[in-house]
Each structure stands twice: as structure tokens, then as C-alpha cells.
Design goal:
The protein is of the alpha/beta class and about 475 residues long. The chain contains 20 helices and 19 strands. Strand 15 and strand 16 form a beta hairpin. The longest helix is centred in the first third of the chain and has 20 residues.
């Protein structure tokens, strides 16, 4: 009997080809062409294994509970956004004409006003963050709100958590939202904070219940901290020891923000807290009348599953197109989509000095291989690449023409564009841009430039691995 005549074999072929044909109808829907092509290739060559992967991470599926709250989020937060619009001071910053298109995009996207009257400080280490933060926690009068992707009580953070417990003991409302996946290793200790009066919630919690089930890799990747609605922090820093992964030391950046824009951080926290707990913050209590503290004009831009567009990715694309002199990008993960890659190369070819500052060693080998697969064409286009040999640069900074700056939690990859909940702060003042330029120069001095001739001498095996990893780039 021919093996192909076996009913089991025939059923197997029927299942495989049913998967392939169904994929042609389903996969391209509402998905970038590169991502759709990658999924179709996987499903064509490995139908059954590919289907399992697609069901796990291929669909932007949220739980029904989350979806229902997100569908009503804009209406739920309307009292907050209306309050912010009424409180908005008139912005004073004047921008060069070439940035008008970027500002127009921002006006279209932003749920919040452009606030003037802010003061921004740069904090470059967890130690400095704690030294600045602990006295402020001890002085808090009403509330402390925090969102962190990774949080853990360890040797580097215990003093911060001790201060939070002291605040809760004297009647300050302390709320901590952590990502269920990112903070899973420290969850047991974190749950004990509830015994000390700290409210703890988990973002995108894993569940076997159908109503609460979602794709397992949804992440709240934001880093936000707000005290009394008057000042706050945002950036890329997690609340964990910078060497929490053996062999790696993370280098991060946090912004301390004092002034009206702190209320935008509060509004983002309010939305996240409502989605996970069903509770809504009181407007009068948590959104005081803003007082100016400096000369910075800036706006907070959230992006993620609860928003219809990949705002931060589109903003980055706009900054690249608007640049005429210099473009500096610091990011740990550079796995761009085709439009961003083409825009970056085109900027270098039209004479913009483009620099990309990356870590030499990443914490995800597949992502590192995919990232390295872009280096040849970037170097050919004239992009300058610098890599830090000993620190995992985890800061996310874009500086355009020494004037517009974007700092936040989003990496330059598909995950941050389409899957993660992220936050970025767009700053308009020259002073903040100059401080960030100094920071970037410090990174550059510690980095090694990537030279095209020496890079071309890498082994064929490494090149093959990089090219294969690039095929997965739309899925990373």
C-alpha cells in the first residue's frame, strides 16, 4: 500500500493545506506587509507548528475584560482630559518651520495639550534615582502612583520600597502597577507590599479564564512615577538592580519632570489603573491646578494596544524625515520596519549626520542577530554606528537637529510599535536638547565605532545566522 493512500496521511495533508489556504485569507488583514509575509512563510513551510505560534503570538488579541474597558477608555477619561485642556497654559516655544509637519502630527494624535512651564532633569543611574526619589516619597502628602515593567525588591531598590511603606503608613495612597510578565520573578515579595497598605495591580495578568485570557506576550512597558500630581518621572529605567541579569549591566535614563506635564503622566496612569482594576482616580484630588516650574514645552505621547495607531513609531518616522542636520538615536533594540529603515538611510544619503548608538551585547541572542543584519546597508548608506562594549545601553533617546528630543520607554522594533504599551515625552526646548546631546556624547565616548571594512570580515556562519534571524524581524 502506498503511504500516500493512508487515511492518516491524507488527513495530515488536508490539515496542512487547509492551514495554508486559511492563512492567505486571515494573516494579511490589518497587518504590515513585512509581518504578513513572515507569517505566511512560516505557515507555508511549517503549517502546524506555525499555527500554534500564530495562535499564541500572531494575533493582537486582548481579553474581553480589557477590550471592553479599552473600548470605553476615551469616554471614561473624558473628565480628566477635559480638565487638562482647560488647565493648559499657552505654549511659548517657537519652532523652526521644518518641524511644523511633526507638530501637526502631534496635534492630531495627542490626547493631551502641549504644556509649557516645565522643568526637566536627567537621571542616569538607579542609585541617583533613589537618592532623588526617597526624600520626595518621604515628603509626599496625598498620593504616589507608579507603573513599572519590571519591579523587584532587591539590594538596589529596598530603600525605595521602605520609603513607600513609610508613606503608606502615614496615610499616603500608594498605588503600584507592574507588568505581570516582566515582574514575575519578584512577584512573591511584591505581593507582600499589600500587607503594608500599598495597592498593587498587575498589567495584562495571565489567566486561564476565557474572559480574561489574552495573547501571553502583551506587555505594559511604561515607566511612570507621579507624586501628588505635581512632579513625576518617566524614561527607560526599571525598578530593579541594573545587574539583575548575570553578565549584563543596564545603563538607563530617567527624566524628572516638574510642572504641568506631570498631569499627563498622571492621566496615563489613571487609564492603566482603570483598565486593570476598574477604579477611576478622582479628578479634583489627583489633578491639581498646574503651576509652572520652568521653561520647557513638552507633551506626553502614549502608544499601545489601547490606541489605534503606533504613535511613537510614526513620530520617529516624522522626526527622521524632518531632520536636515543631525539625527542621533540611542536604543538597545534596533529592528526597524521597512519604512523606518528606508527613511534612516535616505536621511544619511541626503547629508544628515546620522548616528546610531547601541549596546554590543544584547540580552536576546535572536534579536541581536536580527539587529546586526541591518549593519551592512546602514554603513553603506553613511550611517555612523557606535556600540558600547560593556554596558547594555537601555536608554531610548532620539535627538533631531539638536532641537527636538524624544525620550521614553519604546524600543525601535515591531514589538514596541504594535504590541507594548509605551510612553514617550517629546520636548521642544533647546536647553533639554543640549543636555541630551551632552549625555549622548558621553555614551559615544564609551563606545567603539563600527568600521565597515572590519565588519565585512565577520565569518560566513555569523552572516548566515544574521540573515536568517532577519526573516523573523517582523515578528520580534
Amino acid at each position: 500500500m502506498n503511504a500516500l493512500d493512508s487515511p492518516i496521511t491524507q488527513l495530515y495533508f488536508l490539515i496542512e493545506w487547509s492551514i495554508r489556504l486559511a492563512a492567505l485569507l486571515i494573516v494579511p488583514l490589518r497587518r504590515p506587509p513585512a509581518a504578513a509575509t513572515a507569517w505566511l512563510l512560516l505557515l507555508f513551510f511549517l503549517p502546524i507548528a506555525g499555527l500554534v505560534m500564530y495562535l499564541l503570538v500572531g494575533r493582537p488579541r486582548m481579553s474581553r475584560d480589557h477590550s471592553a474597558k479599552i473600548a470605553r477608555l476615551a469616554e471614561t477619561l473624558r473628565p480628566i482630559t477635559s480638565h487638562l485642556q482647560q488647565a493648559a497654559p499657552h505654549p511659548r516655544s517657537e519652532m523652526p518651520a521644518r518641524f511644523e509637519a511633526v507638530d501637526q502630527m502631534v496635534r492630531h494624535w495627542r490626547p493631551f495639550p502641549l504644556f509649557d512651564g516645565n522643568r526637566i532633569e536627567l537621571i542616569e543611574s538607579l542609585h541617583d534615582f533613589g537618592q532623588r526619589l526617597i526624600p520626595e516619597i518621604d515628603a509626599a502628602r496625598d498620593h504616589i502612583h507608579m507603573t513599572f515593567y519590571i519591579a523587584a525588591i532587591d539590594s538596589a531598590t529596598h530603600a525605595i520600597f521602605d520609603a513607600l511603606q513609610r508613606a503608606a503608613a502615614r496615610g499616603v495612597s500608594v498605588r503600584l502597577l507592574i507588568d505581570d510578565f516582566g515582574s514575575k520573578k519578584g512577584m512573591r515579595k511584591l505581593r507582600k507590599l499589600r500587607q503594608h497598605g500599598i495597592e498593587l495591580a498587575q498589567a495584562f495578568p495571565r489567566s486561564k479564564l476565557p474572559r480574561k485570557a489574552a495573547r501571553f506576550d502583551l506587555r505594559n512597558h511604561r515607566k511612570l512615577l507621579i507624586i501628588d500630581g505635581q512632579f513625576g518621572y518617566t524614561g527607560s529605567m526599571n525598578l530593579i538592580h541594573p545587574e539583575f541579569r548575570p553578565g549584563l549591566s543596564y545603563q538607563d535614563l530617567m527624566l524628572r519632570i516638574e510642572g504641568p506635564v506631570a498631569l499627563e503622566l498622571q492621566a496615563i496612569f489613571a487609564g492603566d489603573w482603570h483598565i486593570e482594576t476598574g477604579q477611576l482616580l478622582e479628578v479634583a484630588r489627583h489633578f491639581p491646578i498646574p503651576e509652572p516650574a520652568g521653561e520647557e514645552s513638552c507633551v506626553g505621547l502614549p502608544s499601545g494596544p489601547e490606541y489605534p495607531e503606533p504613535v511613537l513609531q510614526r513620530l520617529l518616522l516624522g522626526l527622521i524625515h524632518a531632520s536636515t542636520e543631525r539625527l542621533d538615536i540611542v536604543t538597545p533594540y534596533f529592528v526597524p520596519d521597512e519604512s523606518t529603515l528606508d527613511a534612516f538611510k535616505a536621511a544619511a544619503r541626503r547629508g544628515v549626520h546620522c548616528e546610531l548608538i547601541l549596546p554590543e551585547q544584547l540580552d536576546h541572542p535572536l534579536v541581536q542577530l536580527a539587529q546586526e543584519s541591518y549593519f551592512d546597508e546602514l554603513l553603506d548608506a553613511g550611517v555612523h554606528i557606535h556600540r558600547h562594549p560593556s554596558r547594555l545601553l537601555h536608554s531610548k533617546v532620539t535627538l533631531c537637529d539638536g532641537r527636538l528630543s524624544l525620550v521614553g520607554s519604546a524600543n525601535l522594533d515591531v514589538r514596541s510599535s504594535l504590541i507594548n504599551a509605551e510612553f514617550g515625552l517629546l520636548c521642544y526646548s533647546r536647553e533639554t536638547a543640549e543636555r541630551l546631546a551632552t549625555l549622548i556624547e558621553g555614551y559615544r565616548q564609551s563606545c567603539r565605532p563600527l568600521v565597515a571594512t572590519s565588519w565585512a570580515e565577520r565569518g560566513r556562519g555569523r552572516t548566515l545566522a544574521q540573515n536568517l534571524a532577519r526573516l523573523t524581524a517582523p515578528l520580534l
